[in-house]
Specification:
Layout: H1 37-69, H2 77-101, H3 103-123, H4 127-155, H5 159-189, H6 195-198, H7 200-214, H8 227-250, H9 255-277, H10 291-320, H11 326-350, H12 356-374, H13 383-408, H14 418-444, H15 448-455, H16 459-491
């Protein structure tokens, strides 16, 4: 779920230009020169589907991957976090690349990188290649996502047509989250976990070859590249993740951990310095003067830390404690994913009638409650009376929370900065999810070896030890959700009623 896997989300848009592309006189709302807009939308939606399918599809397969490649539990978060970190760190840079070199061209490059990385992940015989491939998948996705969405918004230029296209786009994101957790279980129980990666290869190859026949080429306003800023941001985040993972096995006071934390702090501080001085910064920090945007991004960071933590630890809990098969685990998630969409639909109607902050607070209270219940879930819980009610509560809370946060991230933002604001909120989602899992795993797995050794190989004691570990992970997720709630209550200004179309 990011793993953000779990709700409909709008990808970072290109900065809105002062003049829209020329409109076809015979088809108002469609850019001139586009002969098959339906085919364009289908193509872009498939690209979108692939990106978000890979956010969620790995969660159910984690135990199978760990067993096949001999990955210790403390290193499993890398399968999730490397994808999200590289994707989040490079999203805004991907927008610049698409503007400069052409959106269709960068979409093809991104698809090629994504497909090659998926092949590498599928044939991986050790964790090193798998981890590297997941990071490379994130890089490919960071080129696909902004190029695809900006192509969509420059193809469907009329308000009505663009709203419909974005509605389809957003709906498919929600479907991808359902398909991801379910397909991950089906493939892991069937041909094997490697096929969760192999399935991307023929789709990516076909898309690369068909793109010139389907998509128009377009470019945005040319700006200087902030390559140095991108390297500092992504490098700082990756170093921080490494430090958190090392802290699990070596302790928080280990020399390597402390050095990596210092390096991460230096890189991220360097990023801030570079961005403040750059002629064309990747992130113009002046935009954070808008209080609602600032705290909407902070709340989103914490909320996505909760969401991805839930999917990560619930997948392990269902299989390693409750004894579910991968297929049963995938099916167990379906009601949660569907209820997220229901909650988002309810929120979309409510924000036109009441201030969005009220909807957000209610949603976050439900998420906090659900995480507390997960942190107390017994190892003998049944699905119908134990797991399902908590999953439904989690999904409703998430759905109610995401819509007002998306709105808050755009409140008070000038039209020419709308693309930047969309990019920032989605960067917060990806980075929040990756860091959330890393922090939760650092806390939850700190005693995994000690508890496993104390179990002495006894199945009941091992299950109890795992339950304790996973309860700690859910407790960390509850802490993230509580932090998001406090930000919403104390720092976030009132979100005004919103009566326009909500695409994500």
């Amino acid at each position: 779920m990011s793993d953000h896997s779990h709700t409909k989300r709008e990808l970072p848009a290109q900065p809105i230009q002062s003049v829209d592309p020329p409109v076809d006189a015979d088809r108002p709302g469609i850019a001139a020169g586009v002969t098959r807009p339906g085919l364009v939308l289908a193509f872009l939606s498939i690209a979108q589907f692939m990106v978000f399918l890979d956010v969620s599809i790995v969660n159910v397969a984690l135990p199978s991957i760990a067993e096949a490649l001999g990955i210790h539990e403390v290193n499993l978060p890398y399968v999730v976090t490397l994808y999200g970190t590289v994707l989040g760190g490079c999203l805004l840079f991907g927008s610049r690349l698409a503007d400069m070199f052409g959106r269709r061209r960068m979409l093809q490059v991104g698809l090629a990188v994504f497909g090659a990385a998926s092949l590498a992940a599928g044939i991986a015989q050790d964790q090193s290649l798998l981890f590297a491939a997941r990071g490379l998948q994130g890089l490919g996705s960071a080129m696909i996502a902004p190029a695809a969405l900006s192509t969509l918004t420059t193809t469907f230029v009329g308000g009505k047509e663009r709203a419909k296209a974005l509605g389809v786009w957003g709906a498919l994101t929600g479907i991808a989250s359902v398909a991801g957790v379910t397909l991950g279980g089906v493939l892991s129980d069937g041909p094997g976990w490697r096929w969760i990666f192999f399935i991307n290869v023929p789709i990516a190859l076909a898309a690369v070859l068909l793109a010139p026949r389907v998509l128009p080429e377009s470019r945005g306003p040319r700006q200087r590249f902030d390559t140095f800023g991108t390297v500092l941001l992504t490098g700082g985040l990756l170093t921080l993740l490494y430090a958190l993972e090392e802290a699990i096995g070596h302790g928080r006071t280990d020399v390597v951990v402390l050095v990596c934390l210092g390096v991460a702090a230096a890189l991220l501080a360097g990023f801030v310095v570079v961005e403040r001085r750059a002629a064309a910064p990747l992130v113009p920090f002046a935009v954070f003067a808008i209080r609602t945007l600032r705290y909407a991004n902070l709340a989103t960071l914490f909320l996505l830390g909760t969401v991805v933590t839930v999917f990560f630890f619930a997948s392990l809990f269902l299989q390693q404690v409750l004894g579910y098969s991968p297929l049963q685990t995938g099916l167990a998630y379906v009601p949660l994913a569907l209820v997220v969409a229901v909650g988002a639909g309810v929120a979309s109607g409510l924000v036109a009638k009441v201030p969005g902050k009220i909807v957000l607070v209610v949603g976050l209270v439900l998420v906090v409650t659900a995480l507390v219940l997960l942190a107390r879930m017994p190892s003998s819980a049944s699905y119908l009376t134990g797991v399902l009610p908590v999953f439904l509560l989690t999904g409703i809370g998430m759905g109610l929370s995401f819509v007002p946060l998306q709105i808050a991230a755009q409140v008070g933002v000038p039209e020419e900065r709308a693309g930047l604001a969309a990019g920032l909120i989605n960067t917060s989602q990806e980075v929040g999810g990756a860091l959330g899992v890393a922090v939760a795993a650092t806390y939850a797995f700190r005693r995994v070896d000690e508890l496993t050794a104390a179990a002495g190989g006894h199945p009941a004691l091992i299950a109890a030890a795992r339950t304790t570990v996973f309860h700690d992970g859910f407790a960390a997720g509850a802490g993230f959700a509580l932090a998001a709630l406090l930000v919403a209550l104390v720092l976030l200004p009132t979100i005004p009623k919103h009566d326009g179309p909500i695409a994500a």
